[in-house]
Amino acid sequence: MTQLFTRRDFLKITGATATAVAAGGLLPASVAKAARDAGLIDPNGDGYIPSLCEMCVWRCGLLAKVRNGRVVKLEGNPDNPHSTGKLCARGQSGLMNTYDPDRVLYPLIRVGPRGGGQFRRATWEEALDLVAQNMLAIKEKHGAEAMIFSSTHNLSQVQFENLLNGYGSPNYGTQRSLCFNAMVVAFSLTYGVEEPSRDYTNVKYVILVGRNLMEAISTSETRQLTAAVARGAKLIVLDPRFTKTAAKATEWIPIRPGTDAAFLLAMINVIATEKLGDCDFVSRYVNGCQELPQVMAEYTPEWAESKCGVPADTIRRIAREFAADRPDAMIHPGWRTSNFINSFQTERAIATLNAVVGNVLTSNGCLVALNPEASGVKLGKPPQPAYPRVTALRLDGVPWKYPLVPLKLGIFQNIRDAILTGQPYQARSWFIARQNPMLSLPDRRKTAEAFGKLDFIVDVDIIMNDTAWYADVVLPEASYLERYDPLNVVDHKLFLRQPVIEAQGEARSALWIYKQLGERLGLGEFFQYEDEEDYLRQQLAPLGAELQDVKYKGYLEVPVEEGDGEIVFGTPSGKIEVYSETLAGAGFSPWPTWEEPPAPAPDEFYLLTGKVGQHTQTATQNNAFLHQVEDEPKLWIHPAAASARGIEDGASVRVTSPIGSVVVTSLVTEGIRQDCLFLAPGYGHASKGLRVAYGVGVSDSDLHVTYTDPISGGQALSQTFVTVERA
Amino acid sequence: MAQKNRYGFVIDVARCIDCRACLVACRVENEVSLPHTRIWVKDQGLRGTFPDLAREFVPYNCMHCEHPPCIEVCTSGATFKDPDNGLVLVDQEACIGCGLCVEACPYDARYLDPTRGVVDKCTGCVHRVERGEEPACVATCLGGARMFGDFNAPTSEVSQALARATQVRQLVTDEVDPDPNIYYLNGDVMQTGLLPRLPRYTTAETLWRGVAIPAVIAGITLSFLGQAVAFTKQLIEGEQEFEE
Q: What pTM did the predictor assign?
């Protein structure tokens, strides 16, 4: 990859921007003024401004060092429980995300053919009018349901939802079915919370089932696990690949892909039949536990060995060790659990195992099943009317084909497929905010085809990612260092994302963009705030707090009433539901159960995906600072599999799946099973508007077949089987 | 006499997860131009065969040695060991970019920045340390592998870590031992590739004394002559005005 610019050029670029802002007239530099008023920066404009990171979804607290209107360094905020004073490589590189020379800083309207990358600069007025006119015309002609809206997990999500719900479309796409649907649906059904939080304070025994915490980094949790291991906690890692997490493990178990559930069901069998669990906890809080010895009888360690390839004695030993360390033992719920169509059962087994050893509590357990929304913090919000009634079916089949998938999760890949089939009706347009379905969805060719069937595509982003490249209108959002977002509640603290520098160019916050668009769509009543600060003031009003106070520290501590200690889980029975009536009612097994996953033919491989510690999904590959510290994206292959095909390390190889093929450089390594290949994720960008990322690596979206779990809606990302040969 | 501070690093190899936050933090903090770097994390690669594998990552940077070979070869006096804190620093105003120290450093922990024509290296973030902050790499180390402090202060984190440690290692050999101020914990797994190389300054220094110094002197003389000619010419022709 050629280097596009040096640090000097970078300084020139950003210096020029700063000058342009300063020369922009006599307008007060609002960020600097606010920061001065708050006592955060001195008269020269130097100081630290607290805010929130957005290089991934973990939302670490940061302290932005600013000098004369520029951000020059980012530090972790020690007062934030997610950063605990640290930022990862992505967080440290965040200012390059803002100062990326490939930023989109003005509204763009496509002028050439779609995907040709030719755009002209437009005013906000023109771009917003054009978007609103198209959206109104589509509603008029085809109904609101012909409009798809998608965005995921941003702090501004609540106003995005106002846009789609006010407009009246049921079609809400999130990325979650490509990530954690299996975990969220399984834990919601079993514990009544989407994701129990983990407490490593006293943990002695941790089992990670494909959770690669040293590379899929969540700053605080990665730190806590590292510290636990350093003080002697045992770490068992189930992964077909020797990840950096496996490198830190007490024991690495290179399990056969798709068979984690067999291993875990056998652990339940051992603990239940040998009565190693916590009987007191189980009898009071767990529904269905007494029946486990009978229900799990067939899942012996010997049976599991035949499925997952792990010796029965190893499974038995780990089950006993795990139970012996209760309640300071945990099996991590996982995160991206979109691996096989049986991943939901894997998650159910994890939930069950933690329950039977009694480590799940509503507080003070190593798994805490407390609903974050039940934290007791009551924020205000702008007034708004009720949403219009929506009668159209959702394109993704939720809930009419997938009754157990929560509406706010949805099934992203199904939306794309419904555009192609035109069933149950034809979608016409897609409004996408800070998402990259063109690269993130499996089967990129299909996604491009679906885009081709749409009349109008709008994308909100900060850079010209692949989705923006194929859009008709690109609306430039301010970066996370340039804007306000609604407040973030973490552990009884309200954290604020606030601008640390003026927005560059004409980039604007999501709160501003959605409001402007809402007003043009006649939905002004859903956006009753003057500006971002007014929105925040309305949020703070019930707490009697001033925005100024939050700005100074970057957070506000909110006193909350402690619960009375009564343990009630948010399930229909109020207990942990190892046996789930809800599942039975929907026609699925009420118990954690074994579903045989498909396996590759003798000459085929499992194609594994995963994470690297230097990037987030498909969003950060254009960051020059991260590009410099990343490993060259390669295809991992075991030496035996490689030599059988005449493949040497560093050779160019062709990987072929049922839907496509890619040519990539090989990495011959002992660190992967012989029946698996691993492709570094997030690469293969098609947008030439990304001058660092373009041409680097290949995308697994050219190989992944679309398979959907019928219970959770999760895409089975490791269920694509491929062949490999010398290119 | 009060003993001077002796600043340095303790690095726990077992705790490095190769996340590379330190690499980015250093670049941003010190405005290190791409593609150069002042610090590294050495991935030693896999040891063993499937499934009995091990893999370690070894962070390193300038070792701020007690007897730094880089200082011995510095012709301009730009490289020095700070008498107050023991950090090995480069006065980039004085550095002439000859690069001898780059060759002399047995750890390859320096580089010549061709755009600025000076040598650059880890400063231990002395500007942060003077404000009471940790170096950028240490401050953001996720695994808790990197520690920094004064080895002369018994209560410092680094002194405490060394006192508690069962296994401490410096990267030295019988031939090359500049008494580096990075101490590694759990460093038994470190491979020989990380050990210091023999300094290359012998040949370079010979070259410097035999060829480069006369060349530089000649260059300076020629440059002076050139200036003199231009000055004389200007005196004769009068100063030409130039537009802004």
A: 0.92
